[in-house]
Amino acid sequence: MFEKVNSKVVKADLGRTGPIVSRRGSMLFYSGQVHFAPHQIPGAGGAPGGMGAMVGSMMRSEHERTMIAQGNGQVHYGFQGLALHVIDLPQGGQVTADMSRMLGYTAGMQASIVSTQSQQGGGGGLRGALRGAATGALTGNGMFTTQLSGVGAVVLVAHGELIEIPVGNGPVVVDPQAFVGTVGNVQTQLQSAMSWRDAVGRGSGEAMQLQCNGQGVVLVQASEEKL
């Protein structure tokens, strides 16, 4: 699948991997007969007009920066000097992360746009606002994220090397800013622990947390800095 050249560059031999979907602007150089074309995740177009147009616009942000490389040659990828993390799924599986975190993936994987709001329950007021803010920090647009499933490989972008934290013997709680994605059957739920001290700026600064449950791995970057 993908081969790491160093911590910030990966290469794909299209003759072995097949077509590669990647974010635009991530191709560094290539050799051989390679062709690039715009790519769109199926079902991410959205409905025209009114609310459908607004939702469609948010969904498009999950794929509008992608392209597909096809042919026979080697393509080198990197993005803004950030660290890259390769996830191989030779037996199949599932990776969920914001599209901005995905540098690329093998085109044989099934990609879909999923709603994050529907997974996190309702609730209004201050806690509801906090959930919305934290979700926005997670997904960039606050409503949708990208899910890949099947046999293949995915490359994620992060600040520094990723830490893989197993989930299965109890919940793992992560700072939303440090959260990158999940591998396997992992459900996420935002929690708000805001008190009056947070409201007046004297709290711990950790008012929003992300609780992860299920079976799999949570990927955490070595920084609270967003991309």
UniProtKB/TrEMBL annotation:
Range of residues in the leader sequence: none
Classification via InterPro entries: AIM24, AIM24_sf, Trp_RNA-bd_attenuator-like_dom
Source superkingdom: Bacteria
Pfam families with a match to the protein in the record: AIM24 (PF01987)
PANTHER family (UniProt xref): ALTERED INHERITANCE OF MITOCHONDRIA PROTEIN 24, MITOCHONDRIAL
The name this protein goes by in its record: Uncharacterized protein (AIM24 family)
Origin species: Yimella lutea
